Amino acid sequence: MKYAFMTFSNPAWTLEETLAAAKRYGYDGIEVRIGSGHKHGLELSSDATQRAAARQRAEEYGVSICCIATGCVFADPAKAVQNLEQAHAAIDLAADLGAGVIRVFGGRIPPTISRAQAMDSIVAALQALGDHARMRNVHVAIETHDDWCDPCHIANILGRVSNPYIGVNWDYMHTTRVAKASADKAFEALRPFIKHVHFHDGTLDADKLVFMPIGQGAYDHQRVLCLLRSIGYDGYLSGEWIDWEPADVHLPRELVAIKALEASLGVNS
Q1: Eight-class DSSP state of 146
Q2: How many whole angstroms separate alpha carbon 187 and alpha carbon 205?
Q3: The whole model's pTM is what?
């Protein structure tokens, strides 16, 4: 497996500091959150020189910029056009940085429309991104998040989109704690579409994220790793830790823990 962490671990780090931390602790990649004021310096507005320099620096460290995490949401038709423009720009940013994935959201369903109408809006937006994603060799991954934690809802959307460059960012904390789907149930629905995975541990509280060290929370990471291995998953598992402990505390500890669980599966699991 390949492991990364999102820049939420320390939003104050520069790109250089983020890459250095990834190298220091043994991560294979970093996931760059854009549009949230993080100090890594990579945004949709970054020019060609900045993008080329960032990609070269990542290559020098031997650390991939594996995903561009956007805040784009598509469930609200009134906001879809503006968010589509940003998603198209994010595809170009990802391609320029050598990242194979951008993360997007379904978002909250506005109170004025039905789930079916919101689903139509998401499907239309993802379909509109498909050709561009293919041309730039970047996958668009909608996260199991917000009003779209139910893996069956996401599978329905992606089945309708029917584009190999449009898939899912499976955050199995959300499919478990919000949608109450077991790892096996979520995986069975999402397996044809998995492009990126978020991992973290915590409680089963559906109303808020409560992080805990891996092995102390409620999530069966070992089972998820086994399921991903069963399909030869070759994407990244990216640790997402927001407003939690200092990065230099959780980054080394969580990677050691998840790798130990992977090692416990054995070679032929």
Answers
A1: G
A2: 21
A3: 0.97
Radius of gyration of the chain from its Cα atoms, rounded to whole angstroms: 18
Average pLDDT of adjacent 10-residue blocks, the chain of 269 residues: 98 98 98 98 98 98 98 97 98 98 98 98 98 98 98 98 98 97 98 98 91 96 98 98 96 98 80
Q: Are 166 and 128 in contact (CB under 8 A)?
A: no
Burial of 38-51, coded b for 16+ CB within 10 Å and e otherwise, reads bebebbbebeeebb
Residue type at 165 in one-letter notation: Y
